[in-house]
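I am writing to request your help with a piece of structural work I have in hand. The matter concerns a single protein, recorded as an amino acid sequence and a row of backbone structure tokens. Could you please explain, in whatever detail you think fit, how the structure tokens follow from the sequence? Thank you for your consideration; the sequence and its tokens are set out here:
>
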Amino acid sequence: MHETLRDAKNTLLPPREDPHGPLPPLLIVLTVVTGLVDALSYLELGRVFVANMTGNVVFTGFALAGTPGLSVAASMAALAAFLVGAAAGGRLGAAFGNRRLRLLAIGCALQAVLVAAALVVAAVVSGPATRERYPLIVLLGLAMGLQNAVARRLAVPDLTTTVLSQTLTGLAADIRRFGGPGSRAGRRLLSACAMALGAFSGATLVLHVHVLIAFAVPLVLLVGTAAFAYRLDRPAGWAEVRDEAAPDARADADPQRGAPPDEKTV
């Protein structure tokens, strides 16, 4: 348990020698954003996810079977927007291939623009059940696809910001060394809790406060993350974008090298 708590602490307050620098706490913030936005989209835009694409594929199957309240068009719109956003994020990662925090700052800034546009649209549409929900789905889907691609490019272990399946699988698969040396249980639990917190907060805002506030909160978090990442951007080992294919290639070329790829300094 002590190791688990220390791992969680090091994720929120990375030590100086952390190979990923300040990226882990910033990605935890983006994980909260994911929970907020998915709660908003599911509750306000007609039972559709804009970040959880596994859910949308399942919803599409349900809708095709005639399940009431689900829309094939809405799920497909979210999926298409997510893919376009992810493609843009991939191009962004290629353009800023040697500046990890710069990549994160620009990615979050672009997300903020998309979420701000969604906030403006939400302020003028007549209601979530009308056809005006589609611009909102597309804008938010673009933003979350962009986020997912940027997080993938940053390659911080167990912090994908939008997908928890692999994180929870890793937590369960390593249960025998839970809390022991080398365990990342603290980070994995923190990631799951961050998304749950975002979902709870988003649902509370939509159901008990005001839907526009539910749009505004993730916008504020994105702007803050972009500003913080830009302020900290400087040349450093951890600041370089990791080449996803390089670790395996290096391991094949030199099998005597010790640490696994995700534990090495870039």
Residues 21-237 form a domain with the Growth Hormone; Chain: A; fold (CATH 1.20.1250). The chain is about 70% helix and 0% strand.
